[in-house]
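Posting here for the record, re: manganese (II) ion.
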Amino acid sequence: MTKAIKILHLSDIHMGSSFSHGRINPKTGLNTRLEDFVNSLNQCIDRAISEPVDIVLFGGDAFPDATPPPFIQEAFASQFRRLADAKIPTILLVGNHDQHSQGNGGASLCIYRTLAVPGFIVGDTIKTHRITTRSGDIQVITLPWLTRSALLTRPETEGLSLVEVNDLLIEKLTPVLEGEVRQLDIDIPTVLLGHLMVDRANLGAERFLAVGKGFTIPISLLIRPEFDYVALGHVHKHQNLNPANNPPIIYPGSIERVDFSEEKEEKGYVLITVETGKANWEFCPLSTRPFCTIEVDVSAKDDPQATIIKAIAKKEIQDAVVRLIYKIRPEQLDAIDNSILQETLKPAHSYTIRPEIVSQLARPRLPELGVGNSLDPLEALKTYLTSRDDLKDMIPNLLEAAQGLLDSDRDNWLDFEAGSEKVTKTQLALEIDS
Ligand SMILES: [Mn+2]
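Prediction output follows.
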């Protein structure tokens, strides 16, 4: 007779991100945002040890990329080391940010396997791990971030659209996953630990980052009676994708705000007790650094400076990462005393001030290209070219050349899988287009 097994599930640590929102701590020489991220992770590990939980599942994306500098690796390792000392088994799943762009496994996390840290497993392949914990055995299927090259060869994807590539990947993944499910021991609890985008995920503010970044998994692959809990990573906003809880399919979200798109999201981790056929889970909020956006339009105000100061006073800026954005007409700029704004923002942890100049000339000359209209890049170019009399004769040649560029860019796009945080506008447009 096994007892219920207690799990701590956290994800998307991204240690080493958000440095632009911090400052150097003169006492330590470290960026204060690294200290914030360590502090959040520390709260998770404290809880794992004080409970104590039987196992910790990390859902992937340890760092912003696969090659973090040693002092950031060390900050991460010294927290997870406490789990090894406390003899709590831990699985480190490999996310897209942990992989080299050419997909050589979990580059930044494989060191834990190489060092044979007791109780640590690096999840960089699709595999079922049977783990003996203090409260009995549990099986965890690891499903790391899949790149196209993990399941498909180049000839298979030649000439396919991104949607078709996605479909083909799912077609290949389904039997692989099925193979794992069929050999499960039905008498012990089962967790699927995956770093992936589910087609039902609510992306909130970060949806633009996600477009085209790898492929999406239909939720039907995850809602299965064989799984007692599905532990996910990748999306930074906490959510349960299966409110029926059969099984719970949970993104815990990131543990600290990576950027302003996460300003309004509560950050935390998830505690689960799992038995065969049953899981209870609870989201546990972390105390994190607040972010605060102050947006104010002073273009129609007589006293722009006072209006801005008033807008700042309305917000809780103490120790927060603050950005002040104000809309202003050029002739009002002399009425702004930046040193007073800076003085007012001093209680913030850090701040940026961004005036946005409202000008008559800023209106788009071509209404088709204005806000609210979406054109694919080629249509946009056509619209622009037809407005230029001097270029009339060259239009066919220019369009052909642009199409060539788009096609070659699209090819590059397919190789862009485990890559960087930001998606450029061209890539994004292409993506929507295809
Ligand atoms: Mn990710």
